[in-house]
Amino acid sequence: MNADQLFEQIKAKRSFLCVGLDSDMNKIPRHLLAEEDPLFAFNKAIVDATAQYAVCYKPNLAFYEDCGEKGMISLRRTLEYIREKYPDLFVIADAKRGDIGNTSKMYARAFFSEYQFDAVTLSPYMGRDTVDPFLQFDGKWAVIVALSSNPSAADFEMLPLEDGGYLYEKVIDASKEWGTTDNLMYVVGATKAKMLKGIRELIPDHFLLVPGVGAQGGSLEEVAKFGMNRRCGLLVNSSRGIIYADNGERFAEAAGEKAAELASQIADLLEQYL
């Protein structure tokens, strides 16, 4: 899927919502533990309840790796289910891999050939060698972490440079030459929304994956105001605020209601800023 195709999905649904599947065995409704595959049962119900409002899903691999082999089976089943029932949806592996050489090539093959994800998040700390192998797959995306929402992002990302600006700006400015607007995307936390104006000066046409709306307190309106471009250019992620909206029998219904609420706000913002 290229940027134009992603934009077509956004226009068709009037939504740029990405639902994060941070599915935690310790937080899913207790009655699901009786299922043969509780994580998959949870994910399937969440996807079915929210698919009409979302253009993207983002499984966080840590929550599946934590469960060992069973968790990875749940992840594969989730991905296969989305591919079969909702083939137009974009799926991001939130893995934040960051290595070089053959290791990076193996990661790229695993995510794009074995698991058939559309995109994977990457840590660019080790430079271009970290990202290049992921850019060799047609229709696939590397999603580079640029500016995150966590408090300790200031430890490195916000380091001032001698020639002006900050380290995260250097990362963006250098890495944008590695690929194109059809295979490079950037993570920018919603709690840093006001910095999006400067980021858009560096990368006016790239898509941005924006986590932090909902439970982390990021402003959806500020993200749209400062981050939207001519092709929308945004995928705004909400995880806990949607998937854990209720922990009882009506968990899926509650997730659908939360997704519908966000999608309604997004539709209004598309009307206002696009």
Write the layout of secondary structure elements.
Blueprint: H1 3-13, E1 17-21, H2 38-50, E2 56-59, H3 61-65, H4 68-85, E3 90-97, H5 101-114, E4 119-122, H6 128-131, E5 141-147, H7 167-175, E6 184-188, H8 196-202, E7 207-210, H9 220-227, E8 234-238, H10 240-243, H11 251-273
Parallel strand pairs: 1-2, 1-8, 2-3, 3-4, 4-5, 5-6, 6-7, 7-8
Helix pairs in contact: 2-4, 2-11, 9-11
Condensed summary:
By secondary structure, the protein is of the alpha/beta class. Helices cover 42% and strands 15% of the residues.
Describe this protein's structure.
With 274 residues, the chain is of the alpha/beta class. It has a single domain, classed as Aldolase class I (TIM Barrel). 42% of the residues lie in helices and 15% in strands. The protein has 11 helices and 8 strands. Strands 1-2-3-4-5-6-7-8 form an 8-stranded parallel β-barrel, surrounded by 5 helices. Strand 7, helix 9 and strand 8 form a beta-alpha-beta unit. Helix 2 runs parallel beside helix 4 (68-85), helix 2 crosses helix 11 (251-273) and helix 9 runs parallel beside helix 11.
Share of residues in strands? 15-25%
Q: CATH superfamily name?
A: Aldolase class I
> Overall pLDDT, averaged?
95
Provide the CATH top-level class.
Alpha Beta
Quickly count the domains.
1
Q: What CATH architecture do you see?
A: Alpha-Beta Barrel
Q: Helix proportion of residues, in percent? A: 40-55%
Straight-line N-to-C gap: 21 Å
Coarse structural class: alpha/beta
Which key terms come to mind for this protein?
TIM Barrel, 274 residues, single chain, alpha/beta
